[in-house]
Amino acid sequence: MKGGSKRSQTSMERFKDVIDDCNLRKKTDNKLEMTWCSKFSNGVVMERLDSGLCNSEWLRMFSGAKLKTLNWWCSDHRPLIQHILVKHCHVFYDRRKRSSRFHYEEAWGEDEDCKNLIGDTWGKLGACTSAAGLKFKLGNLGYEIDSWNREKRKILNKNLVDSKKRLTDLSEANKPELWKAIKDEEKRLNSLTAKEEIY
Predict the structure, then answer these.
(1) 8 Å CB contact between 176 and 198
(2) Which of 137, 183, 189, 181 minimizes the C-alpha distance to 163?
(3) Is 103 left (phi over 0), alpha (psi -120 to 50) or beta?
(4) CA geometry: angle 1, 7, 13, nearest 5 deg
(5) More confident residue, 60 or 5
(6) What is the phi/psi pair of residue 46, to 5°?
(7) pLDDT 10s digits, 36-70
(8) Dihedral (Cα; 54, 57, 62, 66), 10-degree rounding
């Protein structure tokens, strides 16, 4: 535990009895990582509260399993994920590529860059007096918006990678004084993830 006072073990006695009765054991691949953090009047407290539980039969069945601690994200607990090795199975699926066509997302209209792009592109293409001319203008506009969207997604993906790396570095530092920085980075990552749905 880092920060605050030591936890009382009396509240865990019944839980430990269940663990003993079921012959369960803790499965932790990294005992140094803190999995819980919260703010109290005397400061920020970090502690390793979360761990996996399994019995010997499970260990024999999944001998190569690895338990990994994920980053803090919108919770005062870090989630645990269990990686289990399984034998490959043959899955048959249709590899034929579906034809795709441009589809305008309504949410793009909230982006000022997209609004300006539409106005500029539509104006440059001039007036159209026929269905063929309208089709031509819409086709060119769709191409420009699609190119804009691809560039936006490229930048967004880089920002997502950078933000996730910063959150990983902050989480793995296991320092109570970095808790505010962790929460700030979480907000940034949430914002980027929301934009990912748009682009």
Answers:
(1) no
(2) 189
(3) beta
(4) 125
(5) 60
(6) -120, 140
(7) 777 655 667 777 767 788 888 888 888 888 888 77
(8) 30
Rounded Cα gap, residues 28 and 108, in angstroms: 45
pLDDT tens digit string along 17-32?
Answer: 888 888 888 776 666 6
Distance (Å, whole) CA 199 – CA 178: 31
Alpha-carbon distance of 194 to 186, in angstroms, equals: 12
Q: Strand runs (DSSP E) across 72-137, as ranges?
A: 80-83
CB 182 within 8 A of CB 168: no
Instruction: Tell which residue, 3, 113, 90, 89, has the closest CA to residue 47.
Output: 3
Q: And the tokens for 18? A: 């269940």
Say if residues 171 and 182 touch (Cβ distance below 8 Å). yes
Dist. CA 164–CA 59, nearest whole Å:
32
